[in-house]
Specification:
This protein is mostly helical and 146 residues long. It is built from 7 helices and 2 strands; from the N terminus they run ααββααααα. The protein folds into 2 domains: 81 residues; 52 residues, DnaJ domain (Helix Hairpins), CATH 1.10.287.110. The chain has a two-stranded parallel sheet. The protein is globular and about 50 Å long.
Length: 146
């Protein structure tokens, strides 16, 4: 994909997020997901904490780019749901799902299955890493509360 076209598409996502926030009465007190997700400046920025740079996006396949955009939308709507107090929706924190290697739209069944697989792999009694197992337990506990 041409860099100028890629920049234009990703900037449209920012405008979309602003529109969604405005429609849901979200002020500017919470930073945009876009700002944490994308960095479109040319060159490497050592201070950037964005998940995806322009060069990374340009190097992705179509499926890779689609997965990034899907995750971005999931995070935007997750914040909208939190802001509006929608607690009963079966939605999990996308960053926690990512730590388990799951997609942002994973359901309860997928979370449980992935947790069991990782627990078997990392459990200290089966030769796994105790530190990784503790991290896994914390992530699962957080997801179970949601």
């Amino acid at each position: 994909m041409i860099t100028a076209e890629l920049k234009r598409r990703v900037r449209k996502l920012k405008q979309f997020e602003k529109a969604v926030r405005a429609q849901n009465g979200m002020g500017e007190s919470v930073p945009l997901v876009w700002d944490r997700f994308f960095d479109l400046r040319d060159g490497s920025n050592p201070k950037s904490t964005a998940l995806h740079t322009l060069s990374q996006l340009a190097a992705m396949t179509g499926d890779g780019y689609k997965a990034v955009i899907d995750e971005y939308f999931a995070r935007v709507y997750y914040e909208v749901y939190i802001h509006n107090g929608i607690i009963d929706a079966p939605i999990y924190d996308p960053s926690l799902l990512g730590q388990l290697g799951l997609s942002p739209i994973a359901d309860e069944t997928a979370v449980k299955k992935r947790f069991r697989d990782l627990a078997k792999e990392h459990h200290p009694d089966t030769g796994g890493n105790a530190g990784e197992f503790i991290k896994l337990m914390k992530v699962y506990r957080e997801l179970s509360r949601g």
